[in-house]
Structure prediction request, 392 residues.
Amino acid sequence: MEAGAGAGAGTAGTTPGRPRIKPEHRAYRTVDGNVRIGSVIFGIGAEIADPDGWIWTLTETMDGTRTAAQTVAEVHGRHPEITPATVAAAMTELRQAGYVDDAAAPLPAGLGARDPVRHARGVALLRWMDLSPRLSPWYAQLRLRGARVIVLGVGGTGGFAAQLLVASGVGQVHTVDPDVVELSNLNRQLIYRETDIGSPKAEAAVAALRSLNSDVTVTGERREVRGPDELRALLTYGEDRPYDLLVLGADRPAEIRRWANRICLEINLPWVEGGYRGPLVTAGVHVPGDGPCWECLRAGEAERRDLRLGPDQSEDAASPRMPWNPASAVTAALSGSLVAHAALSLLTGVPPMEPGFRYGVNLMSLGDPVLQRHPRRPDCPACGPSRPASAN
Ligand SMILES: [Zn+2]
Prediction:
């Protein structure tokens, strides 16, 4: 286990050795003389008034070639009216806003020599999205290396999610599936190949994932979950909590999400699930004790949709379930990607995500973002006050 490997990675000193405006946040000067920093992505950028021009000098000077003291001296030298204390305070503000990292940050222990090459693009993206005042660009990557994820159901959603997590450098991924690979899987379960037909998915998935990234630990087992007790046993292995996160890609048995919700609440395990109802692809992001649970969301969404059902009609009347679940490589890849993005965000905090919601894409209406948020329900049978005492 590499739990705890992340300790210290994000807090390696409070002063950057070579402070640098993150390359992805490179500043520019507007025609009004203001400084825009943080890129043009909504949610990241900011505009700073700079009538005297010294903020611009500061952002130019913070290019990773100088120490903090040299940076202050350089800006003060070019703008003598600005005191060193003022320059230093501005540097601190830029760092607090998440625009600064340390160009001299070493590769932390816990990551290997191949990681700077393998994850060069991914670390740059994480750095781009990370607005916390961390100095090491390796913080989130190290968190991923220390993370332990179980992927239950390695079909379309789970298979794509598992590949994305392993490619992203999640340190331990355990895959569970009871089925064997069939020809009818290959239109959407791209983790498998024709040569895998007839092989247990758990076996074929492990082989595929290991061949994708041999620097992380991938395990798997062929196992069926037929009830909540079996799910609890799978997720706990006794008293330990062997995983940091559950990725639920299985949609059978029909009650599996409800079981996962109850058990994850019980053992305090964050979880992400995803799937598709025809062209509507969504993923749900759930953290026990933080926001509404899966059942709260489901109840809230049923009220919002107002399906006009009679007292003797179940929700299935409005959205029938078929023995087959219509899906394509596109919907499976989208679903797995939404799930994996949420998983990576929960594991690293980058970008920050307030859990207790569903998000997704409706392929029939691309302009309409799918975002379901509902308040926690005090009367929720799963997370309300009447639920059984938590295991920890
Ligand atoms: Zn609830």
